[in-house]
Amino acid sequence: MRAAVLHEIGQDKLEVLDDVEAVGFGPGKVKLRVRATGLCHSDVSAMSGVLPQPAPFIPGHEGAGEVIDIGDGVTGLSAGDRVLVCWLPACGACPACRRGQTQLCLAGFMNAGTPNFKRPGGDVFGFAGTGTFTEEAVVDAGCAVPIPDDVPFEIAALIGCGVTTGLGAAINTAQVEAGSSVAVIGCGGVGISTIQGARVQGAAQIVAVDPVESRREAALRFGATEAVAPDGLADAKQRITAGEGFDYVFEVVGKSVTARTAYENTRRGGTLCIVGAGAMDDNFQVNMFELFFDEKRILPSMYGGGDVLRSYERAIALWRAGRIDLESMITHRVQLAEINDALDQMRTGEALRTCIEL
User: Fold this and answer.
1) C-alpha to C-alpha distance for 103 and 87, rounded to whole angstroms
2) How far is 200 from 227, CA to CA, in rounded Å?
3) Peptide bond just before 56 cis, omega within 30 deg
4) Which residues contact 150 (CB under 8 A, 6 or more apart)?
5) Exposure letters 212-241 (e unless 16+ CB within 10 A, then b)
């Protein structure tokens, strides 16, 4: 079968090969036919080494498709079922799961260390234990979440990561209050979803911050009340908050420099929400006096900061009701053979979300 493979960490191109096999099928596993997958910035971060991932590997974790077969002991799924891929399934038994913090379950991360593909040259890993830039994949049963028949595969794929992450940051983690002021730094697919979450929550002002003009224009269509380049944030802060700072600032880039900017633009007593996934050696610093004196809440948001199954259901309900726009987030559609063009479009900021159709 065909798959897009990164041979070594640090390479910026994928090679589309036709000699890849999905392996590991057995008890507790599900074999999927991938129909659509989104290109998420985390895939690029894993390719560059910002996020840890063994290589060679197949990127992709934001996917949807059909069940081909189920292993022994799998319940609630049958061949032919339409599913989205959950890259961080909850085991239901660990301390985090028992506390209701299923987004902090480590079971999914353990999958990332086990190859679930192979080719004549040896084992191949799937990113985050999944790997959806391929025609077929074998995953844990918990990674295959049934979706209603009226949800297209490309929409389900977005809900599998970017939409859930962004909506959840605003709704679950920060719990944006109606009438509040919000700034979102970084307006790719996750940032746009954060903007939509803040709008659903009733924020009065939502300022989108991004260096790419096309993304700023898109942010306005998705609910931002204004959009500025990074050098315009200080002026927006002065005009909207009289210099005090925003009630909520979301950092959706994953870099310490933008996290520091976000902190400085959060009002005293306000909330800084870290949504972007950054590198382990990129340290965010605050001094002990400002940490105490400003009483700003610093809230990281992992995969939307809540139970992902409930978050999926909520995203579908909001989409059905017309409260969020998911179709328009897909700005580009490509075939697997064009994956490197899609990567270039993401790196330049041209694309919000690219759907890879398989």
Assistant:
1) 11
2) 18
3) yes
4) 320
5) eeebbebbeebbbbbbbeeeebeebbeebb
Nearest to 116 by CA among 137, 143, 136: 137
Q: What share of the chain is helix, strand, coil (3-state, %, to 5)?
A: 35, 25, 40
- State the amino acid at position 240 in one-letter form: I
What lies within 8 Å, CB to CB, of 15 at 6+ separation is 4, 5, 6, 7
- CA distances, 38 to each of 35, 59, 166, 335, 349 (Å): 11, 11, 15, 11, 15
β-bridge mates for residue 118, sequence order: 21, 123
Residue 242 makes CB contacts below 8 A (sequence gap 6+) with none
C-alpha closest to that of 188 among 275, 279, 273: 275
| Of 204, 198, 168, nearest in space to 315 by CA | 168
pLDDT averaged per 10 residues in sequence order, the chain, 358 residues = 96 96 96 96 94 95 97 96 95 92 85 90 94 96 96 97 97 98 97 98 98 96 98 98 98 97 98 95 96 97 94 97 97 95 91 92
Q: How far apart are CA 176 and CA 194, in angstroms?
A: 11
